[in-house]
Specification:
This protein has four helices and five strands, in the order E-E-E-E-H-H-E-H-H. The chain has about 130 residues and is of the alpha+beta class. Strand 3 and strand 4 form a beta hairpin.
């Protein structure tokens, strides 16, 4: 079987995920999952698509992630893994869709406007 690749995005993070049959090794930017995402909550989010479809230990995942912070990166990785699983096994689509793993989260940082301190915060008003 060939390598399946998928793309996941969140905020400014982009994750390119390459899925191939194997024994469950997950490499992110040439480092292990536990080394790249040391927090247990982030590791749970990264494995969420695999656990919902009972595919833990069936596929080797190699990913390259750039941009964003750790939260955006792990959610981009999760979306990429979910999309790759759909390409490989389309029957898992309803499970992933019902858990919201196939939706790209559209929320982005609002831009700063000119004449204001931040996106919505204004400079202090002075009457005199």
């Amino acid at each position: 079987m060939e390598v399946i690749n998928a793309l996941g995005r969140r905020k400014t993070a982009v994750a390119r995920v390459y899925l191939r049959p194997g024994n469950g090794n997950i490499k992110i930017n040439k480092r292990s999952l536990e080394e790249y995402f040391p927090l247990p909550t982030l590791q749970y989010v990264a494995r969420q698509a695999l656990e919902l479809t009972n595919n833990v230990g069936k596929y080797d995942i190699d990913a390259s992630i750039d941009g964003g912070g750790f939260k955006g990166q792990v959610e981009a990785f999760r979306l990429g893994v979910a999309r790759a699983i759909i390409q490989l096994e389309p029957e898992h689509r309803p499970v992933l869709k019902s858990n919201g793993l196939l939706r790209r989260d559209p929320r982005m940082v609002e831009r700063k406007k000119p004449g204001q301190k931040k996106a919505r915060k204004k400079f202090q008003f002075s009457k005199r």
